[in-house]
Design a protein that fits this description.
- The structure is a homodimer of 417-residue chains.
- Chain A is an alpha/beta fold.
- Chain A folds into two domains: 3-30 and 301-416, Aspartate Aminotransferase, domain 1, CATH 3.90.1150; 60-295, Aspartate Aminotransferase, domain 2 (3-Layer(aba) Sandwich), CATH 3.40.640.10.
- Chain A contains 13 helices and 13 strands.
- Chain A has helices spanning 3-22, 36-40, 71-81, 95-109, 134-142, 159-165, 190-198, 229-235, 265-278, 284-294, 297-326, 352-361, 393-416; strands spanning 27-29, 88-90, 125-130, 146-153, 156-157, 171-176, 207-211, 242-247, 259-262, 333-334, 343-346, 364-366, 383-386.
- In chain A, strands 2-9-8-7-6-3-4-5 form an eight-stranded mixed beta sheet, with helices on both faces. A three-stranded antiparallel beta sheet of chain A has the order 10-11-13, covered by helices on one side. A two-stranded parallel ribbon of chain A has the order 1-12.
- In chain A, helix 1 packs antiparallel against helix 13.
- The model of chain A has no long low-confidence stretch (mean pLDDT 97).
- At the A-B interface, helix 4, helix 5, helix 9 and helix 10 of A face helix 4, helix 5, helix 9 and helix 10 of B.
Chain lengths: 417, 417
C-alpha cells in the first residue's frame, strides 16, 4: 500500500471507530468466563444433593474428613486425567489453589526426590511456554520463582529451548496447558510429551505442572486426546515428574465447581501429608452434588457437547470477523482453535498495547497486552488474547468489530510513523 | 488410702475393665465432630439455593469472582466477629485454611508493619497457651515456627509469661481461642484481652491469631460475649494486631460450611492481595446457600440454641460420670465448660499416656495424650481431651465409664509403683 492508501485506510477506520465509540459500548472480553447460558446447563446442581447426603462408601458427606475427596467423583475424572483413581485427589473449587499449594509445599519442604526445600536453593526457575496463562505466571512471581520463557509451537513447547533450559539445576519445573492451551489452543503432541517425559534434567526433582484445564473442552468433532503424560513419565523412569491438574470450572459452575490433581502415589502421599495441616478435608457435599449430577465420565462428555453448541458459533464468529476485516491487509494472524477458551491474535509488532488502548476507549475491555507473557512483558508487543465465551453473540460481534478496527488504526498509525 | 486399699481398688477396677473390654466396644472420642443429629438441623442446605442463584447485589454466584465473599453472608457474621463488614472476608469450608494461608503469606512476604518476610528472619516464634488446639500447633510445626508454651488460666493466658515472651523480637504472634477454648473451655476476660491489645512487644508486626471457633457455641443460658479484640487493639494504637477467625463448621455442616476472617482494613487488603494469586474466589453458591438458610445473625443464634439442646445433656453426662466415678479419690480434675466442644481432664501426673492406652485397648479411641501441647509433649503427662459431641448419649456413657475406669487403674498402678 502507498502512503496515501494507508492514510485513506486510517481515515476510514477512524471514522468507523468514532461511530462505535459514540454508541456507548460497555463490553468485557478480559477473561475466559462461561456465559450464563453455559452455567444454566448445570442448574440441577442448585438443588442437589437433596435428602441423601451419604456417598457410595457410606460416608456422611456433611461431616469432617476425607482429605483426598469422594471416591465416586474421583472415579468419574480419573479416566479424563489418565491417572489411576487412587492417585487422584479431589479438592474444592479452584485447581489454581492446588497448583499454589504444590508450589508452597515444594518451597518449604521440597518434593519427593529433592535434596532440600526449593526455598533454600540459591534460585528456583520454571520454564514457561509463551504465550501462556497469566495466572500461572502470577503464581511464580508471587513466590519469587524466576521465569524462563520458551516459545510455544503448535505441537507444544520448543524442545530445543526446553532442553537447553533444563541443563540449569535451578530449573525445577515447567508449566504446560497440554490441550487447547491458553491462549493459542496449541495441543502438545504425543511425541513432544514423550520427549518431555524422557528429558534429561539437571534437577533430580524436576516437575511438569500439566494443567489440563481444557481436557474435554472441544470446539469441533475432532476430540483431541491428551497425551498420557503420567504413563510416559513412568515409562521413562521419571515416575514423579508429572503433576496433572483439572477442574470443572468450565464444565459446571466456574465459581462453585470441583478441582482435581493426579500424580504418582509418592507425590500424592507427599501432597496430602502437607494438605492435611491446612484443612481437614474438602467440601464433600459439593463433591457428592457433582458426582450425582455428572453421573459418569460419559456424562461429562455429554455435558461438554452442550457447551460446544453454545461456544463453537462464538469462536466461528470471531474467526470470520477477523478474516473479513483483517484478511486482506496482512497486518494480523490469529489461531483457529479446536478447543479451549481463547483465540490468540498477533498484530503488527509494537502495536498490541495501542490496540488494547483503542478498544478500551471504545468501551471494550480486553486482557491487557503482554498478559500472556511472564512479568506481563511481550517482547514484540504483538499478542492479544480474545476471550469469546462470556458475551452474547450480538455483543461479541460488536466487540470483535471494535477490535478489528483498532488493529487497523494502530497498524496504519505505525506505518505512517 | 493404704496400699491394701489401693490394691483392692485396682483389682476391682481391673475386673470392671475386663468386662468392658469383653463387650467389644468400638467408640471414637478423638475429635470434636458434630453428631448426625446436629448435622440434621441444617439439612435445608441440601436443596439450597434453588433456582435463584443471584445474590442481593445482583451477582451470579455460579460464575468466577468475588474474592472477599458474599456481602449478605458477611453481614450475618460481622456482628458475631465484632468487625465492620467491609473488614470481613468469607472463604470456603475451613477457617484452618485461612490461618494456614495467613502464616504462609507472612513467611513469604511479611505482614503490614514487617521489615522483611518472616521467613528470612533467623527464627520465628509463636506464643502458645496450653493446653491448646493441636491443629494450631501442627501448623506452626509444619512451617518451622518455634512454639513458646504459656499456661492458659481460666481468664486467658498467664500474662506474666506472655509479657516475658514478647520481649523476644522473634516472637511474631500468638494463638488464642478466646471463647470456650479448646480444650479447657477457658474464656479470655475483657481485662486480659485489653492487656493483650496494649502489650508492648519487641516485634513491631506482632499478631494475635484470635480463633473464635466457638463464639456462639454456648452450653448454658449464660451466653458469654467475646471481648472486642479488634476494637481494643485499635484503642491501644495497634490496629493491625488482631486477626480474627470463625467458621460455620460447628454451626451448619462440619465439612461443607463457610469460614471467616476479620481484621484491620490494611490486613484485609494485604491478605486479599496474596489470596488473589491462589484463587479467583470462594464458592459463592455455598455462601449464598448459607446466607439464605441462616437468614440473619439472630438466625445463627436460634440455630445454636438447637445445637445446645443436643449437646448440653452430653456434657452434663460426662461431668456427672466423672464426678460419680472419680470424685471420691482425688485422682483427677476436670473442666465444666459453659460452651465449646471439649472437657479437659487432668489425671495423676505421669499417667495420661497409660490411660489412653487402656481406653484404646478397651475399644475407646481418645485424642492421644499430649495432643493439646506443642510437639505433642505434655510435660506432666496428665492432660486428656474429651470430645463428647459425636457419640450417641448411650455410647458416650459407656465411653466415659471406660475412661474413668482407666484413670483409676493407671492411678492405682502408679501408686503401687
Amino acid at each position: 500500500m502507498t502512503r496515501d492508501q494507508i492514510q485513506a485506510l486510517l481515515d476510514e477506520q477512524t471514522a468507523a471507530y468514532r461511530a462505535l465509540q459514540d454508541s456507548g459500548l460497555k463490553l468485557d472480553l478480559t477473561r475466559g468466563k462461561p456465559s450464563p447460558a453455559q452455567l444454566d446447563l448445570s442448574n440441577e446442581l442448585l438443588t442437589l444433593p437433596g435428602d441423601d447426603y451419604t456417598d457410595a462408601q457410606g460416608t456422611d458427606t456433611r461431616n469432617y474428613g476425607g482429605l483426598n475427596g469422594l471416591l465416586e467423583l474421583r472415579e468419574i475424572f480419573a479416566p479424563i486425567m489418565q491417572v489411576p483413581v487412587e492417585q487422584v485427589v479431589a479438592g474444592d473449587n479452584a485447581s489454581l489453589a492446588m497448583m499454589h499449594d504444590n508450589l508452597v509445599f515444594a518451597l518449604f519442604h521440597g518434593v519427593p526426590g529433592s535434596e532440600q526445600p526449593w526455598g533454600v536453593e540459591e534460585s528456583v526457575k520454571f520454564v514457561c511456554p509463551v504465550p501462556g496463562y497469566d495466572r500461572h505466571f502470577a503464581l511464580l512471581e508471587e513466590y519469587g520463582i524466576e521465569m524462563v520463557p520458551v516459545a510455544l509451537n503448535e505441537d507444544g513447547p520448543d524442545m530445543d529451548a526446553v532442553r537447553e533450559a533444563v541443563k540449569d539445576p535451578a530449573v525445577k519445573g515447567m508449566w504446560l496447558v497440554p490441550t487447547y492451551g491458553n491462549p493459542t489452543g496449541a495441543v502438545v503432541s504425543e511425541a513432544v510429551a514423550a520427549e518431555l517425559a524422557a528429558l534429561d534434567t539437571a534437577a533430580p526433582d524436576f516437575r511438569i505442572f500439566w494443567d489440563n484445564a481444557y481436557a474435554v473442552h472441544h470446539l469441533t468433532e475432532e476430540q483431541t486426546k491428551t497425551a498420557d503424560i503420567l504413563g510416559l513419565c513412568v515409562a521413562s523412569g521419571h515416575p514423579d515428574r508429572a503433576v496433572i491438574f483439572a477442574s470443572t470450572s468450565k464444565i459446571t459452575f466456574a465459581g462453585a465447581g470441583v478441582s482435581f490433581m493426579g500424580s504418582s502415589a509418592d507425590n500424592i502421599r507427599w501432597y496430602l501429608s502437607h494438605l492435611g495441616k491446612r484443612t481437614i478435608g474438602p467440601d464433600k457435599v459439593n463433591q457428592l452434588r457433582h458426582a450425582r449430577y455428572l453421573g459418569s465420565t460419559a456424562g461429562v462428555h455429554a455435558l461438554m457437547d452442550r457447551h460446544r453448541e453454545i461456544l463453537a458459533p462464538k469462536f466461528e464468529a470471531v474467526v470470520r470477523i477477523l478474516r473479513e476485516r483483517l484478511g486482506e491487509y496482512g497486518v494480523a494472524s490469529w489461531t483457529e482453535p479446536k478447543g479451549g477458551y481463547f483465540v490468540s491474535l498477533d498484530v503488527v509488532d509494537g502495536t498490541a498495547s495501542r490496540v488494547i488502548e483503542l478498544t478500551r476507549e471504545a468501551g471494550v475491555a480486553m486482557t491487557p497486552a503482554g498478559a500472556a507473557f511472564p512479568y506481563g512483558d511481550d517482547p514484540r508487543d504483538r499478542n492479544i488474547r480474545i476471550a469469546p465465551s462470556y458475551p452474547s453473540p450480538e455483543e461479541l460481534t460488536i466487540a470483535i468489530d471494535v477490535l478489528a478496527t483498532s488493529v487497523l488504526i494502530a497498524a496504519a498509525e505505525q506505518a505512517l510513523g
